[in-house]
Amino acid sequence: MNDILLFTLLTLGLLGTVMAVILYFVAQKFKVIEDPKIDLVEDVLPKANCGGCGFPGCRNFAEVSVKAANETQSLEGLNCPVGGNTVMKEMAAILGLEVEEKEPMIAVIRCNGSKANSPAKVQYDGPASCAFAHNLFSGEGGCQFGCLGLGDCVASCDFDAIHMNPETGLPVVNDKCVACGACVKACPRGIIELRNKGKKDRRIFVSCINKEKGGPAKKNCSVACIGCSKCFQVCPFEAITMENNLAYIDFEKCKLCRKCVEVCPTDAIHELNFPLRKPKPEVTDAAPKERPAKVVAEAAAPKADETSNETKPDNIA
Amino acid sequence: MKSLKTFARGGVHPDENKFSANAAIEALPLPKQLVIPLGQNLGAPPKPLVKKGDIVKVGQLIAKGEAFISANLHSPASGKIAKIDDALDASGYRRQAIFIDVDDDIWEEHIDRSDDIIRAISLSKEEIVARVKECGVVGLGGATFPTHVKLMIPGGKTAEYLVVNGVECEPYLTSDHRLMLEKGEEILIGTKILMKALGVEKAIVGIENNKTDAIQHLKKLAEKYSGIEIQALYVKYPQGGEKQLIKAVLNREVPSGKLPIEVGCVVSNVGTAFAVYEAVQKNKPLIERVVTVTGKAVKKPSNFLVRVGTPVSDLLQAAQGLPENTGKIINGGPMMGKSVSSPDIPVVKGSSGILLLPREESKRPQAMTCIRCSKCTVACPMGLEPFLLAKMSKLELYERAEKDNIMDCMECGSCQFTCPSNLPLLDYLRLGKQRVGHLIRTRK
Amino acid sequence: MFTISGSPHVHGDENVKKIMYTVVYAMVPAILVSIYFFGLDAARVLLISVMACLFFEWAIQKYLIKGPVTINDGSAVVAGILLAFNIPANIPSWIIIIGALVTIGVAKMSFGGLGKNPFNPALVGRVFMLISFPVQMTSWPVPKALFSSQVTDAITGPTALGILKEGVGAGKTIEQIMADPNMPAYIDRLTGNMTGSLGEMSALALILGGIFMVIRKVIDWQLPVSIIATVFAIAGVFHLIDPTHYIDPTFHLFTGGLMLGAIYMATDMVSSPMNMSGKVFYGVGIGLITIIIRLWGAYPEGISFAILIMNAFTPLINSAFKPKRFGTVAK
Fold first, then answer.
1. φ and ψ of B265, to 5 deg
2. Are residues B301 and B323 in the same domain?
3. Confidence check: pLDDT of B444 > 80
4. How far is B63 from chain C (nearest CA, A)?
5. A255-309 pLDDT, tens digit each
6. CA distance C254 to C252
7. Do A125 and C5 touch (CB under 8 A)?
8. 3-state helix, strand, coil in chain C (%, to 5)
9. Are B334 and B416 in contact (CB under 8 A)?
10. Are both B406 and B435 inside the same structural domain?
11. Residue B87 domain-assigned (yes or no)
């Protein structure tokens, strides 16, 4: 018995040693020489591999950044939206460069065609794919620019930041959003846009992308932008442009004064995370009946999704 | 007199339900307003030549096709142009259309309105193509490809056969059937005109065996017209697809990604042949067509001769109303037609029929998991593997789908029809085709 | 309100439930034969197997996966009956339940349920039981025809293939093996009056069921025929070469689980290839491995292992054998 044990140990030991030596030399010969900075940069990255930077994976972003730093001495055009300014500063420190602070951004849903505002005229029966439904028909509410509510955006999010509100049929973005842009690409109608988070998380945007004239737009959705230009006329900072019967607020120029929100006749412009206004003494005769209904619809949103901090537009009549 | 033929691979047998087969073609009275969408053909839509307030006559040119693949549009009624604005099309999207307030029924003088059959073909080959182009004739089988472009054979290829499609393989639809029975000789003369334009000596008219009266009628008429053969075919869907039809009548397979001219054939629908007859012999542009209105609950299944631009609601009224428990309105047949959100849409050149499905038949059964039974593969007439391609589309593996010939799919629906698990195969296949098509276009 | 969906807007009359129950009806002749020969024991085995399979599928879907419960699609019933067909009638009930747990829980549910299992679930259950409980799985009861007054002394006996394997191992010639008193006569092998598991009895009943399934377009005849033809051909070749040591091929056709395996187990849609040429290749492979095990392997019966081995090759066969695309043949 001992002979066998001895013989086995010797043979295996010898075999193992020979293999180890061969492997060592092979590893040395075929070693890939990489800039050690790539490993250091990759370490500080969030490793989400979400593609928000535009490159396939964090490792690749690290490689490209180190290459750019070595060749052009700048990180121009390179940004990790998930890591944000903290990570970019750390990266720049490793590479011995300066990087300017960027404004944090967030995905914004530019449609308020909920089940109440844009009631269904037909029933959709098919796979839960917005891309497919977009090519099939204009939408249950009839607006061909509006949200289809089937959740391609929700499926594309890697950060658990966007969820469908079952009562309104619209997606809601929460604080976990890192503005990687996946949902923007996933939406076949281009409803989602990356906009500045804004000071104190406040932002104002037109919650509609309908490019039709006011009549047909309003027929399908009661809170559509009708292109009346009232907001454009009242904005003191020239932040609003009108094109194709649609108003657009430039988030770089907007100073959050909220004058446009007050004058919009269809409540298409939304303001987020502002304190409540003092209630106005006079009530506009234009559409007093509309507002309570809309406030009720919006009120449902926070209940369904507690992580959302989207407050109601506060024109309480 | 040959025995029945068919194509070998794939195909399914949906219930035929040809309720309106015995309804003679009825001309529908003119509506008060016509809505004529500009985009009624494959290719670029024509540019409008009229503006608000213009007075037009029936047959007057109101939009001109300027791109290579485009078709002219003519006024189907006389009256005043009300406006040029967006109108709802079959998919609920709004597209540009010409609105005409109808007043009386005054036709252009150069159009021959008599019912006499004109047999002598006096125009030359080039004149025929020019006349077909002038009259805005497009393929009436549903694809609406401009016919004059089809007649212009690309250099280096020769046409040997004209195949005329009288198959009408879609269940429920009977407009081609009635046209063959009532305007059979005109169709054959139209066939001869097309043969002259293409420079071919032989034409085969394919008709499925559930229309034996049409087969007998045309066989009798064809005795007077040399070169035209009537071929009866087994009933199998989708025999009306041009590639399947060529395989059935001539046993030739059109190569993947290529057109029928590669095997020396040009395929045309019987409705198109009739429109060519009217254009060449009567100088009449394409302004009306036969549309079937049918369905299990429809009180009066009919075939109407309708002016382009008539609202579908008018057709439903003439068929004695929309049945109460209608769940779906389909523009076309049940296998490839488009479901629409309301009947307030206009009839266009490509509308072959309106099918009304009752509510019980409008909801899809619950989809289960794929049980790998391969029935979809057996049913696919193009030899594809629908279960695999649909999965690839769902997982967004578009390059793999392209390599697996997803672009060969003709969207006939046989796979989804036969799937025991009710999987939405065609839905995902269509999505995949759109994405792959986009990929191919942006690659160049 | 109208409905909008993509075409097609009509559907054929095929559905999963219909397919599964067609298979169940096809197995009815074999069920009746097994009850005739093994009496209430056979009924017990069948009932417990089907009930256990249904129960485990329901329990796993409801409490473990917490998803929709799909026991009325009939696939668990089919698995239960096929499992019962693979075991002897005198097996203790608790072993059947363990077998059902493996069949449904391991071979089907753990891969994702219906449509996702790479291996035939009933066969996985059977092989598991064979390896874990070899004694109980190989003591075959002697059939006692239901209404006969026959009284036998022995309650268990070897199967025909078992006698063959033992005899060959002991060096006997075929003539000597066939003279063994326990070896059933030819007519008995055909009608099923011999020992074996529940489903291995009457080849006639199984073939009847097979024809029913082919007419209803649930299975393709090419797959079972290619398996049986391969077994017959190879057995025939060796019989011609050496008739004293290799039995004639018709013996192989009607004994053991060849008919059961070829018609009901190999044709399981989920684990078999999709394309027809792939199926034939698969069938030839199964036949080859079966006959090799039968002639030279350690086990007397090889079809269960053969099918499981070829199941592993199914994805490869699917990639290799694709349908011919339209437009690739010029004329």
1. -120, 150
2. yes
3. no
4. 32
5. 988 899 999 999 999 998 888 777 656 555 444 444 443 443 343 344 333 333 3
6. 6
7. yes
8. 60, 0, 35
9. no
10. yes
11. no
Here the tokens at position C204 are: 């006639």
Tell me how long chain B is: 444
B174 and B279 part of one domain = yes
User: How far apart are alpha carbons B78 and C324 in whole angstroms?
Assistant: 54
Domain boundary among B361, B396, B427: B361
Q: How far is B430 from chain A (nearest CA, A)?
A: 8
Alpha-carbon span A111 to C111, nearest angstrom: 41
Q: What is the pLDDT of residues B183-230, one digit of tens each?
A: 999 999 999 999 999 999 999 999 999 999 999 999 999 999 999 999
B83 touching chain A per CB within 8 A: no
Q: Does A101 touch chain C (CB under 8 A)?
A: no
In chain C, how many domains are there?
A: 2
Does residue C8 belong to any structural domain of this protein? Answer: no
Q: Give me the CATH code for the A36-95 domain, please.
A: 1.10.15
Q: Is-cis flag, bond preceding B365, omega within 30? A: no
Would you say residue C11 lies in a domain? no
Q: How far apart are CA B270 and CA B288, in angstroms?
A: 15
Number of residues in chain C: 331
Which residue range(s) make up the domain with C175? 152-200+213-315
Residue B77 to residue B30: CA distance in whole angstroms: 8
Contacts of range C235-242, beta carbons closer than 8 Å, 24 or more positions apart = C235/C291, C235/C294, C235/C295, C238/C295
Residue with tokens 């849409």: B345
Collapse the DSSP code of B102 into the 3-class scheme (helix H, G, I; strand E, B; otherwise coil) and give the result: strand
Tell me which of C69, C326, C328, C331 to substitute to probe the interface with B (most B C-beta atoms closer than 10 Å): C326
* pTM for this entry: 0.86
In order, the DSSP letters of C141-204 are: EPP--TT-----S-SEE--HHHHHHHHHHTT--HHHHHT-TTSPPHHHHHHT-S-S-GGGS-HH
Residue of C nearest to B415 (CA): C8
Please tell me whether the peptide bond between C8 and the residue prior to it is cis, using omega within 30 degrees of 0. yes
CA distance B132 to B128: 6
Taking an 8 Å cut-off on Cβ atoms, the answer to whether C8 and B370 are in contact is: no
Question: Does residue A152 contact residue A131 with C-beta atoms inside 8 Å?
Answer: yes
State whether residue B364 sits within 8 Å of chain A by CB: yes
Name the token pair of C325: 């695309």
Residues A165-193: pLDDT tens digits?
Answer: 999 999 999 988 988 888 999 999 999 99
The domain boundary, picked from B361, B386, B404, lies at: B361
Does some domain include residue C7? Answer: no
Residue written as tokens 């085995």?
C45
Distance from CA of B43 to the nearest CA of A (A): 18
Q: Which residue matches tokens 């839960």?
A: A128
What is the helix (H) or strand (E) element at residue B34, kind and residue range?
strand B33-37
Query: What CA–CA distances, in Å, run from A224 to A195, A206, A218, A227, A290?
Result: 20, 9, 6, 9, 13
Task: Judge whether B153 lies within some domain.
Answer: yes
Same domain, B345 and B433: no
Asked whether residue B171 is domain-assigned, the answer is yes
Instruction: Indicate if C90 and C187 belong to the same structural domain.
Output: no
Specify if C132 maps to a domain.
Answer: yes
> Which residues span the domain enclosing B267?
1-27+111-361
If we measure between CA atoms, which residue out of B324, B342, B316 comes closest to residue B31?
B316
Contacts of B364 in chain C (CB under 8 A): 5, 11
Query: What's chain A's length in residues?
Result: 317
Q: Mark A13-22 as b/e (b = at least 16 C-beta within 10 Å).
A: eeeeeeeeee
Decide the pairing of beta strands B61-64 and C140-141: unpaired
Per-residue tokens: C10: 């009509």
| Cα B369 to Cα B29: distance, rounded to the nearest angstrom | 50
Residue B8's domain is classified under what CATH number? 3.40.50.11540
Q: Where are the domains of chain A?
A: 36-95, 105-304
Q: Are B424 and A127 within 8 A, CB to CB? A: yes
